[in-house]
Design brief:
- Helix 3 crosses helix 9, helix 4 (100-111) crosses helix 8 and helix 12 (334-342) crosses helix 13 (390-405).
- This protein is an alpha/beta fold and 406 residues long.
- The strands form 3 sheets. Strands 3-9-8-7-6-4-5 form a 7-stranded mixed sheet, with helices on both faces.
- It has helices at 17-25, 53-60, 76-89, 100-111, 126-138, 152-158, 181-190, 240-253, 259-270, 272-291, 310-316, 334-342, 390-405, and strands at residues 5-6, 10-11, 93-97, 117-121, 142-146, 163-169, 194-198, 215-219, 233-237, 296-300, 323-328, 348-349, 359-362, 380-384.
- 37% of the residues lie in helices and 16% in strands.
- It contains 13 helices and 14 strands.
- Helix 7 links the parallel strand 6 (163-169) and strand 7.
- The longest helix is centred in the last third of the chain and has 20 residues, at 272-291.
- Keywords: Lyase, Pyridoxal phosphate.
- This is Cystathionine beta-lyase.
- Belongs to the trans-sulfuration enzymes family.
- Its cofactor is pyridoxal 5'-phosphate.
- It comes from Bombella apis.
């Protein structure tokens, strides 16, 4: 494709190159003089045995140190993965848990208590909204919702004296609002609250702790594993006090990662930079092409100059990912769009993203919002761009869109 310059001389896809060397070498075995495998082995186990009671008791004090204490507190492959994710996110400690949703829920439980107020962006991942309005509500935590692109006065008005956590997700995983995270961090900290961020879209492209985030959450299911065969999540912090609270919650909840899933994710991370570079380039090219189609009203891709929040993305992100949204013009019904999606050949229909395969998912008609802002006005869908040739993806979409026009 023809390179399209955005921001200060950067090109979509090239931001991932600076991670290639780090990811290739992170988490590898260091063979001794007699050689050895480059990848660490998978160690499965529950019980950890010790020579003496005294040894067991001495090791127990290391439950906060990524050390082998008991299977439910972590395993050697999990600990290695935690080191890699912490370095990638720019934090000091990472806790790996069994899913992306578990990463959201464990993090929220670690920093909230009965009587607290939680502030979520209206664009938040649906299961996180469900957890807040379900389990957290039963535990006595009240949840409010703010417009994801709220200005300072609006956001300040949503804060309460008992707001303990402000949550952000930038961009939103369905409507792709880019949030002004540094401003949210400043207002949250000024109100005595912590800022938690779902950084799954921005892994490697957004450094959370340089922008004021206290806790960064990842669905490792997505780009880190990269092959649509793992469910895993991570929570990363930078400050020791946050690590103490997070690790204590993880131990009390029995939250950990299975060794095989951690090993597969470590393997996936080795190729994440090259996969994401291609997926980001292909997605951007596809988004530009879709903007030119008469059936399309809006393309929600943060790297496009016309997308709301583009200037914030250009300021804070070093690159993009392969996930974006499309809104069709008025007059194309939801039923017609669904028929088009059903007829695509190269795009499977699925709710996840970040793997090697291209996916589509309807995003109109099923979104829950407290505020009208950001909701698509027409039929809309989300595209996850995989590793297929972008010309083939265009041809598949073109056939479907031509059918809508006719």
């Amino acid at each position: 494709m023809k390179s399209r310059t955005i921001g200060a001389g950067s090109v979509i896809g090239e931001g991932w190159q600076k991670f290639a060397t780090f990811l290739t070498h992170a988490g590898r075995q260091q063979p001794g003089r007699e050689g050895g495998f480059v990848n660490m082995p998978v160690e499965r186990g529950s019980t950890v045995v010790f020579p003496t009671v005294e040894d067991m008791e001495a090791q127990g004090v290391h439950a906060y140190d990524h050390r082998l204490v008991y299977g439910a507190m972590g395993n050697p492959v999990q600990h290695r993965l935690e080191q890699v994710i912490a370095a990638l996110e720019g934090g000091s400690h990472t806790q790996v848990v069994n899913s992306g949703l578990a990463a959201c829920s464990v993090a929220l439980l670690a920093f909230l208590k009965s009587g607290d107020h939680l502030l979520l962006p209206d664009s938040v991942y649906g299961p996180t909204r469900r957890f807040a309005l379900g389990m957290l509500a039963r535990f006595g935590v009240e949840t409010g919702f703010y417009p994801p692109r709220a200005d300072e006065a609006t956001l300040r008005a949503h804060l309460r004296p008992n707001t303990a956590v402000v949550f952000a997700e930038s961009p939103g995983s369905h409507t792709f609002e880019v949030q002004d995270v540094p401003r949210i961090a400043r207002l949250a900290h000024g109100a005595g609250a912590r800022l938690l961020l779902d950084n799954t879209w921005g892994i490697g492209a957004f450094q959370p702790f340089t922008h004021g985030v206290d806790v960064s959450i990842q669905a490792l299911t997505k780009y880190p594993s990269g092959h649509a065969d793992v469910i895993l999540g991570s929570i990363t912090v930078q400050r020791q006090e946050h690590w103490q609270a997070l690790r204590r919650a993880a131990i009390e909840l029995g939250a950990c990662g299975a060794p095989d899933d951690c090993w597969l994710t470590l393997r996936g991370l080795k190729t994440m930079a090259v996969r994401l570079a291609q997926q980001a380039r292909s997605a951007y090219e596809l988004a530009l092409w879709l903007e030119s189609r008469p059936e399309v009203a809006h393309v929600r891709h943060p790297a496009l100059p016309g997308c709301p929040g583009h200037e914030i993305w250009k300021r804070d992100f070093t690159d993009a990912s392969g996930l974006f949204g499309v809104e069709l013009v008025e007059g194309i019904t939801q039923e017609a769009m669904v028929a088009m999606l059903n007829g695509l050949n190269l795009f499977s229909i699925g709710a996840s993203w970040g793997g090697y395969e291209s996916l589509v998912l309807p995003t109109s008609g099923g979104l829950t919002r407290h505020h009208e802002e950001g909701l698509p006005k027409g039929a809309a869908f989300r595209i996850q761009v995989g590793l297929e040739d972008v010309a083939d993806l265009k041809a598949d979409l073109a056939r479907g869109l031509d059918g809508l026009s006719s």
